[in-house]
Amino acid sequence: MQWDFGTGLSYTEFTYSDLTLSKTNVTSSSDTIDVSVVVTNSGSMAGKETVMLFLTQPYRSISVPEVKQLKKFSKISLEAGASQTVKFTLTADDWSVYQPQISEGFKQVAEDTDYVIAIKPETDCDVYNATAAANPLCATFTLQTGDYPYGVLLG
């Protein structure tokens, strides 16, 4: 039997809600984004859950093999019926990628464009379908630092 990444057996169920971002526009490479999500043990037994945050850059002008990257995770324990707010902080290291530079090694870059946060590995944010229903476990922020405007890294 094949299991999806992050899937494990449990005697209880967890529900996620109230995904929030502290900001949706990043204008400086020193900015951070605080991300929070409420996790509830909706089952009848105590259990542990690994809360995972993934980041996607739907449109990019440079070639990066990963489309959906696991950036943060936290393992929590909850009694039956209990809820907990899980918080993560994203920095430029999280939304940047490494681009090879001839005779200079790798350079960390982040294009000015939209980025999508997804909670849980199976969450489908359907970023390429403008008419898709909004997924409550997806959120978007826009990077606008002026350091690497979209498309300038093609050369």
The assigned CATH architecture is: Sandwich
Mean pLDDT: 86
| Number of continuous helical runs | 1
Give the total of domains: 1
Q: Ends: how far apart?
A: 45 Å
CATH homologous superfamily, by name?
Answer: Immunoglobulins
Radius of gyration: 17 Å
Amount of helix: under 10%
Shape assignment: elongated
β-strand number: 10
Write down the CATH topology: Immunoglobulin-like
CATH class bucket: Mainly Beta
Residues in β-strands, percent: over 45%
The major sheet is characterized as:
5 strands, mixed
- The ordered string of helix (H) and strand (E) elements is EEEEEEHEEEE
**Structural class by helix and strand composition:** mainly beta
List the strand order in the largest sheet.
Answer: 2-10-9-4-5
Low-confidence spans: pLDDT under 50, at least 5 residues?
none
Write structural notes for this entry.
- The chain is mainly beta and 155 residues long.
- It has one helix spanning 92-95; strands spanning 14-21, 25-26, 33-41, 47-56, 68-78, 83-90, 97-101, 105-109, 114-119, 138-143.
- It is elongated, with a radius of gyration of 17 Å.
- The model has no long low-confidence stretch (mean pLDDT 86).
Short description:
The chain is mainly beta and 155 residues long.
List keywords for this structure.
Ig-like_fold, Cellulose_deg_GH3, beta-glucosidase activity, 5-stranded mixed beta sheet, single chain, hydrolase, elongated, Immunoglobulin-like, EC 3.2.1.21, mainly beta, 3-stranded antiparallel beta sheet, 155 residues, 3% helix
